Amino acid sequence: MVLNKKDFIEIEFTGKIKDGEIFDSNIKKDLEKTNLNVKPKPLIFCLGEGMFLKGIDDFLIGKDIKEYKIELLPEKAFGNRDSKLVQMIPMRIFKNKSKSSSRS
């Protein structure tokens, strides 16, 4: 089966930077190699609708369903790093937050 725009797909993935360090994954064995404290869960999205990385959409449309290794340039992923957009926040700020806060 060939993947088409607007197909809903479920993928397992591991995102790595050039040196091989894992920065995100939904694969249990890969998450165990990191200090990421997340439970693996499926990633389901509509192909070609901007719900995931543009580079993934562009690569998968027209491809058969199988396993791929994809290398993305920054502009097709999260963009080039811009140090002006990075803000350092002292840990004490988070330690002083009320533990009763909850996310809705």
UniProtKB/TrEMBL annotation:
Species per Swiss-Prot/TrEMBL record: marine sediment metagenome
GO biological process: protein refolding
Transmembrane segments: none
Gene3D superfamilies in alphabetical order: 3.10.50.40
Localization terms from the record: Cytoplasm
Family indicated by similarity: Belongs to the FKBP-type PPIase family.
The name this protein goes by in its record: peptidylprolyl isomerase
InterPro entries in the cross-refs: PPIase_dom_sf (IPR046357), PPIase_FKBP_dom (IPR001179)
Cellular component, GO, one term: cytoplasm
Keywords: Chaperone, Cytoplasm, Isomerase, Rotamase
Catalytic activity, as annotated: [protein]-peptidylproline (omega=180) = [protein]-peptidylproline (omega=0)
The enzyme's E.C. designation: 5.2.1.8
Pfam family, one: FKBP_C
Occurrences of domain PPIase FKBP-type (ranges): 6-90
UniProt KW Iron keyword: no
Molecular function per GO: peptidyl-prolyl cis-trans isomerase activity
